[in-house]
Task: structure prediction
Amino acid sequence: MASPFFLFENVLESGTLTASTEVDGWPAENLLDWRPGTAYRWRAAIASTPATVEVDLGVGNEILADAIGIAGHNLDEDAGGIVGLDCDYSDDGAAWTTAATLSSFVDFQAKLPHCQRLDSPPGAAKRYWRIRVYMISGAFTFDPQIGVCTIGRLLEFPGQTGGVEFFSRSVDADFIDNQDGVFIGSNVKHPTNLWNIDYSEGGLDRDTFFRPASGINFDTDFRAHIYADKPFWYVALDSGEVETTEGLLVRTRDWRMPFLGIKQRRGLQATLRAWNDRA
Result:
């Protein structure tokens, strides 16, 4: 049993993106389209690694973040060594501070999402953010790719839930991707899954549930994200855990919240429409 989190907002979509390298047809903007499939990724040229994607939010547009999530990546596959990914922030775009290093890809099941709390989150909002992909040891043997990247905030709910089984979901559809007749991957769609967090069973009232200790206000912060028709991550973290591969991308289609009309079940209800990639 794990505690539910929503990773929402994305600093990368709030400013101007600049990539140090990108293969033609796989631009950095692909990180923002919420499609993790092989054909929809940012792809860095192997000859130009380490590779970065940086966002400048502009004067007076600083943003605070406390977590990062990636999906649709191939960073677990490189036989040339161990891949690392840093999430950095800066006040001036020149001097960078690392907020988190993701380096456990080799231990994960292939292509699973990776969500992680920032190890050293900034104490104040920042104008510049970036991700940096590099080899901790060895050398790249292929072009590194990432389909979805979110640097945002975690909305944490009290209690625990077992509402979603992450690793045993059947396949609803399988789409072959090709470019100029050359196979480049297979996109997998899972069936729709209805998921609930019910706060009445835990003996919680509405104010306690919707205004958790994370400091994020459900009504004024998270609702604005949903009403803008933006996807978010559902993440499950065990007590004391800082990183997980138990994450789903949640689409806003058929989203309903909160449901307060039935006394026996009060909380949140969402329709999960998750996609992943199989190369």
The radius of gyration is 19 Å. The first strand starts at residue 3 and ends at 8.
